[in-house]
Amino acid sequence: MGQSYDRRRIAVLVVEDEPLLLMDAMDMIEDAGFTVYGAANAAEAISLMEKHDAIRVLFTDVDMPGSMDGLKLAHAVRDRWPPVSIIIASGHVNVAHERLPENGIFFSKPYPPASIVTALDGIAARIVQG
Questions:
Q1: Interhelix angle for 19-31 vs 113-129, to 10°?
Q2: Residue 30 covered by a domain
Q3: Domain count, the chain
Q4: What is the rounded CA–CA span in Å between residue 15 and residue 60?
């Protein structure tokens, strides 16, 4: 049986400084039917969060240039937008559970795309039941 909600109503913000990886992640999430925004760094991500109330999920890489890496961004988003769900990915570090923001999910890169979509569906189902 299909999901009982409209995935297009759940917006996901992907934060990734590698342009090809950003495009791949955005395509994967869009192909799954979700609305998607992309940012190359934490400053862009915060700016998009401020503009788009529909963003309910932050999907960020840990390793990013600039003053704020993905982990710091995740905690900043958790503080300012508590309802936003957070998925963190990294190919370089394994983030210990206690370093994740509350209810954060961690994936090691490379991750199977289906596992991200499954995580997004779980998040979307919780949001809709909210």
A1: 50
A2: yes
A3: 1
A4: 5
Q: What's the CA angle centered on 54, arms 112 and 36, to 5 degrees?
A: 35
Task: List per-residue pLDDT tens for the chain, 130 residues long.
Answer: 355 678 888 999 999 999 999 999 999 999 999 999 999 999 999 999 999 999 999 999 999 888 899 999 999 999 999 999 999 999 887 888 888 998 899 999 888 889 999 999 999 888 877 6
3-state secondary structure of 66: coil
The two three-digit tokens of residue 113, written as one number: 């795309």
Q: Is 119 part of any domain?
A: yes
Domain membership of residue 1 (yes or no) is no
Written as six digits, the tokens of 114 are: 């289906």
Which CATH number fits the domain that encloses residue 96? Answer: 3.40.50.2300
- Biggest CA–CA distance in the chain, Å, is 45
State the residue range of the domain holding 120: 7-129
* pTM of structure: 0.92
Q: How many CA atoms lie within 13 A of 63 on its CB side?
A: 9
